């Protein structure tokens, strides 16, 4: 395996672990996560508290098990960009709530 392929595998595993940890903490504290989403300013926080961990967990699994395809990595970039946009919008709107990125604070 060449260096570029090794870096790609390490990056995929690291992202998968990050998404998996994030999903697990949100599921473990789902009610608090729902409250944190509401405080963060997101509508439909109850539905999102179920949906986001599923998306993150599924994406983590796809990053590990879908080998030879680029779409899981591009989807991870899109999800991270969406999350970053939400944090930036929250900061611009002067909302004091912290990001519930890894579950409730």
What's the short version?
The protein is mainly alpha-helical and 105 residues long. It is 76% helix and 0% strand.
Instruction: Work out the radius of gyration.
Output: 15 Å
- The proportion of residues in beta strands is under 5%
Along the chain, the helix and strand elements come as HHHH
Tally the helices: 4
Structure description:
The protein has 105 residues and is mainly alpha-helical. Helix content is 76%, strand content 0%. It contains four helices and no strands. The radius of gyration is 15 Å and the shape is elongated.
What's the layout of helices and strands?
Elements: H1 3-28, H2 30-40, H3 45-65, H4 71-92
Question: What labels would you give this structure?
Answer:
105 residues; mainly alpha; 4 helices
